[in-house]
Amino acid sequence: MQVFEYPPKQDWKELLKRPENDLSNLFDTVRDILNDIKNKGDSAAKAYSAKFDGYASDQLMVSTKETDEACLQVSSQLKEAIGVAKRNIEEFHKAQLSPEIRVETMPGVLCRQKSVAIEKVGLYIPGGTAPLFSTVLMLAVPALIAGCKEIVLCTPPNKEGKINPVILYTASLLGLKKIFKLGGVQAIGAMAYGTERIPKVHKIFGPGNSYVTAAKQLVSLKEVAIDMPAGPSEVQVLADESANPAFVASDLLSQAEHGTDSQVILVTDSEMLIPRVQNEINKQLALLTRKEIARKALENSRIILLKNTDEMIEITNAYAPEHLIISMRDHDEIADSIVNAGSVFLGNYTPESAGDYASGTNHTLPTHGYAKAYSGVNLDSYMKKISYQKITADGIKNIGPIIEEMAAAEQLEAHKNAVTIRLESLK
Ligand SMILES: NC(=O)c1ccc[n+]([C@@H]2O[C@H](COP(=O)([O-])OP(=O)(O)OC[C@H]3O[C@@H](n4cnc5c(N)ncnc54)[C@H](O)[C@@H]3O)[C@@H](O)[C@H]2O)c1
Ligand SMILES: N[C@H](CO)Cc1c[nH]c[nH+]1
Ligand SMILES: [Zn+2]
């Protein structure tokens, strides 16, 4: 990881750049695949599945037999761990249910707002470099709590057409039935447009690599809503001299191992901490199975030494990390000044992987600086708000003249008349 000591503010923007695929190329490739899926449906899905995942079969839907067999392959300890994570995620997301809002804005003018579940949702579970069964919990638990009626799940198969058994176990634990062996852009296109076998949904959720993220962004221009751009994982650690170098290194590596295009950033005001963290990274990296992936991600990554806490906060809000760990003495106070981050982890005993798996918060989070404007997945992501109003005869007498005045000023006579006609009927 490259170290930058006291970089002047005008250099921060350059320093905080994300690793880029050639974006124009990426979007062109993705657009072509999406058009094929839109025009040719399942036959194109099969062709792209063969090309990118080495699986060419007409059998796209996972059968009950396959799920039953998969469930037998999962150890009881893992089933127990998944059970605890599920309960925590349920608890945190159930607490997000919001009551209906009812306000009488003027006498006789009653306004209501109610949350209604999105009927059909599509969940994308990444499976390219690691089978993220935890993402099944993160996406399906809130969908079920919200009350979504149709839940479609797509995830890439291996060359033999098999889905990771733990993904299937988790999906079956949650009662999901429509599981398709399809990954990448072809899965996003299939859920956006619908194919002969894959139902079209209203909103697509889930993280993925740059291809998946670009596909979500393109289909959201016209066909469907999406949760947010949730691309290659990132973590930023804010650390002072109270941080534990081994813990900091472990957190940086935990996101670096996701993919070669992941990015991890350490920002500190402690010069002494830097070589200690570097030593720890080298020690821990050598022990990882995914060391080559993590090593590549570290090439995209940086250590930044700054003068004080104020600068550390400023650079964090400018970067808007997906995950932010604050390993500093005053972590609670510093957290109050953070306005741009997907999810924040406080103190030395809160590893980011707690949020990835089991604490209860959602791990599907905005990357690439989108945390400036987007929230991570939460219960509201699966809901629409519908507003209602009911005006009584007395109510229209109260509010009618206001509406007439405004409609006349906008020169919209018919709008005005819809009120006048009622007021006159009451004379
Ligand atoms: N932001 C978040 O909330 C979050 C959460 C979990 C994981 N992630 C990220 O999700 C990503 C998962 O990526 P992954 O690759 O392991 O799995 P993935 O399922 O996202 O991508 C695999 C698919 O990519 C497609 N693909 C691969 N190369 C292609 C090419 N050249 N052209 C077109 N399509 C191609 C294939 O169809 C394959 O099925 C990682 O980057 C990880 O960091 C993000
Ligand atoms: N850190 C990922 C989100 O960027 C989520 C995840 C799933 N499994 C492990 N990690
Ligand atoms: Zn992770």
UniProtKB/TrEMBL annotation:
Binds 1 zinc ion per subunit. One of its GO terms (biological process) is L-histidine biosynthetic process. Substrate binds at S233, Q255, H258, H323, D356, E410, H415. One of its GO terms (cellular component) is cytosol. Gene3D superfamilies: 1.20.5.1300, Nitrogenase molybdenum iron protein domain (3.40.50.1980). Its cofactor is Zn(2+). The keyword Electron transport does not apply. Pfam families: Histidinol_dh (PF00815). NAD(+) binds at Y124, Q186, N209. Pathway: Amino-acid biosynthesis; L-histidine biosynthesis; L-histidine from 5-phospho-alpha-D-ribose 1-diphosphate: step 9/9. GO terms for molecular function: histidinol dehydrogenase activity; NAD binding; zinc ion binding. It comes from the Bacteria. It is an enzyme of class 1 (oxidoreductase). Zn(2+) binds at Q255, H258, D356, H415. Signal peptide: none annotated. Its EC number is 1.1.1.23. The keyword Zinc applies. It catalyses: L-histidinol + 2 NAD(+) + H2O = L-histidine + 2 NADH + 3 H(+). Catalyzes the sequential NAD-dependent oxidations of L-histidinol to L-histidinaldehyde and then to L-histidine. NCBIfam families: hisD. HAMAP family: HisD. Belongs to the histidinol dehydrogenase family. This is Histidinol dehydrogenase.
